[in-house]
What we know:
The structure holds two protein chains of two kinds.
Chain A: H1 2-29, H2 41-49, H3 51-66, H4 68-95, E1 97-103, H5 108-116, H6 118-121, E2 124-130, H7 133-142, E3 147-150, E4 154-157, H8 168-188, H9 193-200, H10 217-250, H11 253-258, H12 263-296, H13 306-332, H14 340-364, H15 369-374, H16 381-390, H17 396-424, H18 434-441
Chain B: E1 2-11, E2 14-24, E3 29-33, H1 40-47, E4 55-60, E5 63-64, E6 73-76, H2 88-98, H3 103-116, H4 132-144, E7 150-153, H5 162-177, E8 181-186, H6 189-193, E9 198-203, E10 206-212, H7 213-218, E11 223-228, E12 243-249, E13 252-257, H8 263-273, E14 276-282, H9 286-294
Parallel strand pairs in B: 3-8, 3-9, 6-7, 7-8
Antiparallel strand pairs in B: 1-2, 1-4, 4-5, 9-10, 11-13, 11-14, 12-13
Amino acid sequence: MRYVLYGVVVALLALRLWRHRRARALAADAPEPGGAVRPGRLGATLDKLGGDIGLVARREVRERVRGRTFRVGTAVILLAVAAAVTIPVLRKGGESHQRVGIVGTLSGPLRASIVATGPALGTKITLVSEASLATATRALTAGRLDVVLVGTHRIVVDQSLDPTDTSTTALLARTISASVSLQAGLEHAGIPPANALRLANPPPLPVQSLKPPRHDQTARTTAVYGLILTYVLLTQFGTWLLMGVVEEKSSRVIEVLLSTLRAAQLLAGKVIGIGAVALLQAALIVAVALGLGAAEGSTLIHGTSSLEIVSSLLWVVLGYAFYCWVFAAGGSLADRQEQVQSLAFPLQLPILFGYIVSFTALGSGQPSELVKVLAYVPPTAPFAMPVLVGLGDVSWWQFALSVVLMLVATVAVARLASVVYRRAILRTGGRVHLRQLFARAA
Amino acid sequence: MLELEGLTRHFGDVVALDGLSFTVPTGQVFGFLGPNGAGKTTAMRAVFDLVALDSGVVRWKGVPVTSKGRRHFGYMPEERGLYPGMVIVEQIQYLAQLHGVAAGDARTAAMQWLEKLGVADRATSKLEALSLGNQQRVQLAAALVHQPELLVLDEPLSGLDPVGVDAISAVLVEEAAAGRGVLFSSHQIDLVEDLCQSVAIIDHGRLVAAGTVEELTTSGKRRLVVKVDGDFAGAWARQLPGVTISRVEGGAVRLVLDEDTDPQAVLAAAMTAGPVEQFGFERQRLSEVFREALV
């Protein structure tokens, strides 16, 4: 819990610092006419993008990054990430130490054999001598002990053990149950304790495999986090884009803008600007996750190949590139801010569908046929393909094929969306329906 | 010089523009008049390519207007529009930059215009925090900030109090005096009579009258204003041949005389009705020109 608290404190401090700096920047910016606006570093980079598109993109970045939605949203996401990375480490820390209460006396070799099971279970075992069963039970209830061994004939645990329970405590209880019983039996039969110890704890046979493991847990976990990141970023920034377009249309500033800009320039600037903010946020999240993970030795991150992370980020970018046009075109159909929700929902459906199906496949550990197909369907590929990567179920050319299909589809969607946007953005007086747009063209 | 030539646009069965042509000279304030729905807004949007024309062409300095040329125009749309949640000086600066002004100059110009229009103290507020009248001033600053060669303002005076009308009128006159083109639309005819040198009057998407205010108001039928003591309703004039009462104002009747009506006969008729307190010719009001043009 300690680390989560640290995380909260750091995030809040960062937020305070940010607000302070922004207030100072605004104050310095405001009074003197002729003082040039200080562009942010991202803004300066976008400036080099050149011309009107760069100007539009820069405004988007500045306004979004300043907005409370972005700052609070980023802080919340970062806290969630910090918690996701930290909590398993802490829990593992708790479980990595098992305390076994001993009621009665136990021979040296038996004690040694119990302690010796630790490494195989990935835990450290401490033996605690208890005066009576009653005190041992109390300690067990209070959580000071994990397992209690009563003589060599009984094991007591706090919670009844399910046969499928794979927690360290359950594994330990089962192992001790078998080995102590066997060893005690052998000793009882007159075999010297040292020999009984060896007999009851034989060295395990090495297991040789013909093929490498089908998929490893870490890659799968990376895919889970990739999926969540993709889902959050696509829905969040898609909706932002939609709202940004609706804002310009409903406030009628669009007429002023289009009196000097072409619709395609405005659209491109918005898409790039909001995309840059999305990428910034994604990079921040990944950096925090990797940084925290490395610092705390979390297994969630440890051992993840950079290839998997790059693949996840690539699909975030590709997903945004595809969906940004859809959402922008959707926004141009609205007439008032209130229509944002009703327009965003249908556009989010394929995202939600891809997300749920892919998540289910990851959970089961086996990619379904559906996921294998969806990995090549552009609207769902940003979810399904990283899952196939995480499950180690895809070759490089399949991956490349999916990327190419995605790029082609993105170009097509961008063109169509530009047409819709251009035709709908200046139409006011009620929601525009696609039928109206294309009926006029015909 | 801005030339609109043969602008035609249909929206379904509705004819918004029907071969509309007229010319806006630079260096003077040009009023664009017409009843609601006459096509003024559509014509102005056509200048900025915000509406696709069925046919017709818009020229500036003799050349068809391009998107590059439009950067030197300033536009104030009928439905005001700026970013409600954006800091005022920043959005004016942004719009200046979109018109090709360098960042630093854009900031200076933005502050200067806000100063001139009396909203400089709100420069760092968000637009939505301002009253509608002040928002309109900011909107005008947005149209002017890049020193446009041509200003196209759709109903710039509507919804303003007299102080606001004066402030914005003064700016329009100043801009015209500096040699720029100033085209502005209005349906409040009396308000623009003193403001513009020339007007174009349109109805149903077609030009019905155009020229200098001087020409339009001095041509046409003669107008007499006569006041007879004791006859505030102007009953004496109702039966006169060759005379139409255009309006009765403060006991004085405003009469429109036919070509062959003798003013002396009218005076004689007035004198029989009672003591004549006022008798004289007056030029037409622009609103009368407007009404007659629309008949």
